[in-house]
Amino acid sequence: MNVIISNKYQTLLGTLNIDVIKTINGEFSVQDLVNQFSNFYYNKMVIDITAIKNYQNVNVMRELSMNFEMDKVVVLLDDSPQVNSSMYLSQLVSVGIYNFTRSVDAIPFLIEHSNSYKDVASYQNFNANSGNFVPTKEESTPVKLEQRVIGFKNVTEHAGATTLIYMLKKHLQDTYKVKAIEVNNNDFEYFNDKTLESADFMNVSYKISNFSDVEVILVDLNDAPESICTEIIYLIEPGIIKLNKLIRTDRKIFDKLRNKKIVLNKSVLSNNDVSDFEYESGSKVFFNIPCLDEKLDNNKKIVEFLIALGFSRLNSETKRW
What is the crossing angle of helices 30-37 and 58-67, to 10°? Predict the structure, then answer.
């Protein structure tokens, strides 16, 4: 059973699908938490960082680290520039706090898989000072406004995100500066393309921030939080078995996907079939992609999909089909 200590993000933390034995809400000193939980048994403690008084001061976070087993603590960061600065994150790592995230969606993963130093070492800057730090605007903004970070999420099992991203990158790379990253997987290696990147769960945000000169980043999300992307595409393979299995697993899945960008992939549906799918599921399909040959350099359907996503430079390209 888990403990939740919340403040600003009380409502968000209340949506977590985890076993909770105790929840407290408010603003507390580290000593307040020690007094309440020093003899209290729990599996993991989830802390909304805004629930800790003076959390901007790294010495307060050091005090937290000294009084609790940090592999049993998950810290949800707030959205303030200071907390999201490279300096502050480096200081968290320096005081032994490894299980931190900006996304509520990532918390269940960290409850089951505590980070080691290796998972967060990339955040550490050994020139970081130990006091308070106010970042410059550039340091607090990891992604340029004009950069698109597009995440691909398989809604049905094996809906083809990895191969689709490979094809999209291949078609974009002549007209856009583009990178492709897969998270917590190594399937990209089978395409024999050394420009394809892989990253683990905690390092993907850092890797994305290093691609500041890249216009488009395509991310095979797997179980990574959607918050690392500027937009998400939800892939569904619309076969009978896949759809029935999906609905039996989560009967409210299409309610959750309402107003999301749904793409049918590896689809054998006609236009009329797509209309029926939309009516029966109560959803709107953004694009219908049939089974494609990933070996082709020029695929008309992939280009049409990219143009629909707003990659207008492809409109002026001469393509031979």
Answer: 10
> pLDDT by residue (tens digit) across 215-232?
999 999 988 888 888 899
Strand order in the sheet with 100-101: 20-25, 2-6, 45-48, 73-76, 100-101
**Interatomic CA distance for residues 94 and 30, integer angstroms:** 18
Q: What is the pTM of this model?
A: 0.57
Q: Which of 82, 111, 130 is nearest to 201 (CA)?
A: 111
Q: DSSP assignment, residue 305? A: H
Buried residues in 218-237 as b, exposed as e (16+ CB within 10 A): bbbbbebbeebbeebbbbbb
The span from the CA of 93 to the CA of 122, in Å, is 10
Q: Which residue has the tokens 């000169």?
A: 213
Dihedral, CA of residue 196, residue 202, residue 203 and residue 207, to nearest 10? 80
Q: Cβ distance 111 to 2 under 8 Å?
A: yes
Could you tell me the CA-to-CA distances from 283 to 165, 273, 287 in Å, in that order?
23, 13, 12
